[in-house]
Structures are given as structure tokens and as C-alpha cells.
Amino acid sequence: MKISLLIPVCNYDIVALVHSMKGAIGKVPELHEILIGDDASSKEFLEKYRSLEGDGVRIISSEKNIGRATMRNKLAMEASGDYLLFIDADMMFIGTAEAFLQKYIAEMKDAQVICGGIKYLESPPGDPDKLLRWKYGKWREERKASERNKRPYSDFSTFNVLIAKSVFSKIRFYEELKQYGHEDTLLSFQLKVAGINVLHIDNNLLHEGLESNLEYLNKVKQSLENLSMLCDRATDKQKFCSILTTLRHYRILKFLRLTIILSAIFIKYREKMERKLERGKGSNWLFVFYRMCMFCTYREIHRRKKFSGKVLNVLF
After folding, report:
1. Distance in angstroms (rounded) separating the CA atoms of residues 7 and 35
2. How large is the average pLDDT for residues 27-37?
3. Sign of torsion, CA 211 214 219 224?
4. Partners of 25 in the beta sheet?
């Protein structure tokens, strides 16, 4: 069984990451190739990526930004391995690349989809402007495999996942999602509908690329807009809503007729909440409340047909 390592990237330095993995080619026979998906990066970064080419490393470039979902599909089409190992560009190995690969290889004979997990540094970042991403990631995303396997589809993520190419060729990422967020949620839903099991193992990658608090809040807005759109397009809404805690909580709030109240709270107090979160002083619970209020607002806007896309620009 051959593995193709796929790294979608846009304007991020992956030289150290690729060199670490490149050294494993030859040492780990299963590692067949490394494909870097350059999504319209600047000339400076593109030159860095091209310096990595050769010895099993290839660059797949796009002159215009096509988005994470489309780039991942493009990488998968170009890959010649039996298994596709997707990792995000802002990750780094905790041990050696060889040890990381061997943990996946040990499970390949028994599973077609394997999630490795994510790890954050134990100490908070010295820069308070990057505290929000670290706090939430440490609290909600850094979880042991034994916990993730209790809800395997809910905890599915593509920042560190191995997927059999035969499986991926039948599902793929939803390319209408051009902005950040929740392309992995839809993929997880497709896996659940198809009856394909997801196995979680303790094979973490270290998340190094912490965004600023404002950048992260902007990503959250994009991801929740995507999620609201996916809710409208899901063929089996009940099963789709079972995938994420956010959706399960939203259904409860909707049943209790509280979603409009949360939307009103968001519109009135949004700026105050964001100022606190941007300073890195807000608690995780404030962030969760902020996200839920925002999602309720998106759902209310999308529900009312008379509202156009311009309303989103006014509110957000």
C-alpha cells in the first residue's frame, strides 16, 4: 500500500515540515510521494515551494485562489497512492516523521479512514493577540482518541487524516465552499451516510500556525456561514445535524423558540463581545455563546427569503 502525502497551502512557510517528511521517503517504503497544493501563493512563497521539488516532492499550482476544498480534490486527483494523507500546512511533527507514518501504517489494514488528532503547546502563546485560537483549540480540539471514538463522525477533521483513495474518489470535498470552514463536516456526513467507519488514533500533529484573535474571529464567521448554507442543502437534515454539537444545540434552541432571541442578542451585543474576544480576555464559554448567537443569526437570515446576500455584508 502506497501513501500520498497531500499539503494544501497558501502563503505559509512549509519548508521545515516538508523537509521533515521528505527525509522519510526511502526509510518508510509506504511513503510514495509528497504533493504540495499551492493555492495562488505570492511569488516569494511559490519560490520556496519550488525549492522543495524533486526526490518524490511535486508542486500542484493554481494561478487563482480556488479554495481549500477544490485544491484538496485537485491534489487527490493527481495523487497516485492507495491512501491519501491530508495534513494542514501549519502543522509540525511532535516526534519523527517516520514514527508518525508508522502509526498510520499499523492501522491501514483494518481501517479506510483514520484521524490522527491535533496537539497544542502546553504553555499559552506569549502574544495575547493569539490567545483565542490557542485557548479554544486546547479546550475543544485537543482530545484523546478514546474520547474522539465515542463520536467518530463529530470529531472528524481533515487537518490530519488518512483516507483510502478508493473511498475518497466516491465522496470528495464540496467545491462550492470557497471560503474557510466546514468542508470536513460535509465529508464526515458523506462518510456516515455511506456507512464508512472512521477510526481515531493518538497520532497527533502540533498546531503551530495560530492566527491573530481578529483573524480567527473572521474565520469563524466564514465557517458558520458555510455551515448554515450546508444545513439548507443537506438531503437528510436530521442525520446532518447529528454530526456537530453546534447543530444539535441549535435544534434544541429552535424547539424552545430561543433562536430569535439569540439573534437579537448577537445584533445588539456583537461589537462588545468581539472587542473582548479580540483582546484575548473572553472566556471559552463567551466564545461558544458568541458562536451560537452568530449561527442563529445566519439561520434566521437564510430562512427569510426576502433577505439578500447584501444583508450579510451589513451585519458582518
Report:
1. 6
2. 94
3. positive
4. 28
Phi, psi of 176 (to 5 degrees): -75, -15
41, 49 in Cβ contact below 8 A?
A: yes
Dist. CA 88–CA 29, nearest whole Å:
23
Whether residue 118 contacts residue 40, with contact meaning beta carbons closer than 8 Å, is answered with: no
Q: Which uninterrupted H or E stretch holds 191?
A: helix 183-194
- Helix, coil or strand: residue 143: coil
Percentage of the chain modeled with pLDDT above 90? 67
Confidence band for 179, pLDDT divided at 50, 70 and 90: low
* CA–centroid distance for 236 within its chain: 22
Question: Which pLDDT belongs to residue 147?
Answer: 96
What is the distance between the alpha carbons of residues 300 and 260, in angstroms, rounded to a whole number? 7
Q: Please report which confidence band the pLDDT of residue 178 belongs to, taking 50, 70 and 90 as the band edges.
A: low
Who wins on pLDDT, 300 or 3? 3
Whole-model pTM: value is 0.89
Read off the pLDDT band of 316 (50, 70, 90): very low
- Domains of the chain, residue spans: 3-210, 217-315
Pairing of strands 205-207, 118-119: parallel
**pLDDT over threshold 90, residue 304:** no
Which phi and psi (to 5°) does residue 257 adopt? 60, 45
Q: 259-278 and 284-303 helices cross at what angle (nearest 10)?
A: 130
Measured between its terminal Cα atoms, the distance across the chain in Å is 47
Q: Are strands 31-39 and 57-62 parallel, antiparallel or unpaired?
A: parallel
User: Are 98 and 66 contacting, i.e. CB atoms less than 8 angstroms apart?
Assistant: no
Bridge partner list, 60:
37
> For residue range 69-94, what is the model confidence (pLDDT) as tens digits?
899 999 999 999 999 999 999 999 99
313 vs 300: CA distance, rounded Å: 15
Give the burial string for 262-287 (b: 16+ CB within 10 Å, else e).
bbebbeeebeebbeebbebebeeeeb
CATH code 3.90.550.10 for 3-210:
yes
